[in-house]
Write a structure and sequence with these properties.
12 strands; single chain; alpha+beta
């Protein structure tokens, strides 16, 4: 809650209510129901943007974005889920611009075409909606890092790898992670679940390729994963303690070699 209040204060301190918006908005459409309205500021450094027609929590929310360089192009950027994201990229061509919408949690962009005429009356309504939603902490909530969502996604990776051991080896070997020891920055920047699932994944693959391998790991009933700055794998009784490091190379080969020598 404190983080949400902090982000709200930052948004309010950006003089959002004193935004000097250009008279005409930029109206964009995908042609199949996705619509975007961009209301740039007069200096073209920022813009209010609203996306509608998508099955996502940012639908119909008006964001204050910064117009920044993005590779060789530019993009309207905002904060979502604890990170700065590009909402709409702008590529300047012979006939001005092409626009691409990027929805969070999706890989491919949605290409947008611009309407020839725009309605200036849209700008006032967009600003009013932005101010109302801002007062309700909607943008601040969406800007805040959603730890529970990320945890759920990473835990599914672990569960899927555990299930593969049951399927391929006929053994129940659970991978455990002390999630309380994983801070938000680590969870935000790294696929912790995928890293920690590596031992289980290799076990399942090795059983699939050679069914006799399951006899070599039958005495193991747990994998304990720690996300660290070093790569180690050790056996302690019936438990394998796996220390994974995001920058360590050749982790798959390292795990395979260890498992073959159990």
């Amino acid at each position: 809650m404190k983080k949400i209040l902090l982000i709200t204060c930052l948004l309010l301190s950006s003089n959002s209510f004193a935004l000097e918006l250009a008279k005409y908005p930029i109206e964009l459409s995908s042609g199949d129901g996705v619509n975007v309205i961009i209301a740039p500021t007069k200096d073209n450094k920022q813009a209010l943007i609203k996306v509608t027609g998508i099955n996502h929590e940012i639908d119909d929310i008006t964001f204050l974005t910064d117009f920044k360089p993005h590779g060789s192009n530019k993009a309207y950027k905002y904060t979502y889920d604890g990170s700065e994201r590009s909402l709409v990229t702008v590529s300047e061509g012979y006939r001005c611009c092409s626009y691409t919408l990027y929805i969070p949690e999706t890989r491919d962009g949605t290409y947008l075409s611009q309407k020839e005429k725009s309605d200036p009356g849209i700008v006032a309504g967009l600003k009013a909606q932005y101010e109302q939603q801002l007062s309700q902490n909607i943008q601040a909530t969406l800007a805040n890092f959603n730890r529970e969502k990320h945890l759920g996604y990473q835990q599914k990776k672990i569960a899927a790898a555990n299930n593969e051991i049951v399927k391929q080896c006929g053994l129940k070997i659970e991978t455990a992670v002390d999630w309380k020891a994983i801070n938000d920055d680590t969870l935000k920047n790294y696929a912790v679940g995928s890293f920690c699932a590596q031992v289980a994944t290799e076990m399942a693959d090795m059983c699939e390729n050679n069914q006799s391998f399951k006899n070599d790991i039958a005495h193991i009933d747990a994998i304990e994963c720690q996300f660290t700055d070093q790569l180690k794998l050790r056996q302690n009784g019936k438990t394998l303690t796996f220390k994974t490091a995001p920058k360590a190379p050749n982790q798959r080969q390292f795990i395979q070699s260890y498992l073959l020598n159990l």
